[in-house]
C-alpha cells in the first residue's frame, strides 16, 4: 500500500510579541474571561504542534480560526498597552453584553472611551473592517455598559479604534465614530 502524505500543518499568524509572551498573555486573558476556569485552545500556543490538527473534530474550531483568535487577543493586549502608555486607565477588557462585545473600556480624565481593536495583515485592511453594523453593536453595548455603571453617567463618551498589523506600529484613532454611527 502506498503511504499517504500528511497535509502540511497550518502555520500560525505572525505575532507582534515573542511567543513566550503570547502564551503568558493568552493564559491570563483566558483566565479573566472564564472567571478563573482553564480554557483549551489558544492558551496552548507555546506547546509544540498546539492548535495544529490534520482536521478539526465536529464542534471544534479550525486551526486557522484558533490562530486568528490568538492574533486578536495579542492585538488587544498591544492596544491596551498603547492606551496605558498614553495615560488612559483600563476599566474593562472584552466586556460582553447581549448586544455585542466591547474590546476595551478606558477612561481618561472626564471621558469614558470605548475602544474597538482591529488586527489585520495591513493597517488599511484593519481600518475597513469597522463596518456600520459593527459600530451600531458597539454603541448599543456601550449603552448597556454605562447603564450598569451609574457612577460614570456624568462623563463624556467617546468611541475610538486601534488598528494593529504585523511589522507596523499600532495606530490609535480617537473619536473614530460617534453615537450616530
UniProtKB/TrEMBL annotation:
Protein biosynthesis listed as a keyword: no
GO molecular function: endonuclease activity; nucleic acid binding
Pfam families found in the cross-reference section: UPF0102
Compositionally biased intervals (Basic and acidic residues): 46-55
Claim: Transmembrane helix is one of the keywords in the record: no
Keyword annotations: Endonuclease, Hydrolase, Nuclease
Region Disordered, residue ranges: 1-21, 33-63
Family: Belongs to the UPF0102 family.
Name listed for the protein in its UniProt record: UPF0102 protein BV133_1732
Species whose genome carries this gene: Blastochloris viridis
Organism phylogeny: Bacteria, Pseudomonadati, Pseudomonadota, Alphaproteobacteria, Hyphomicrobiales
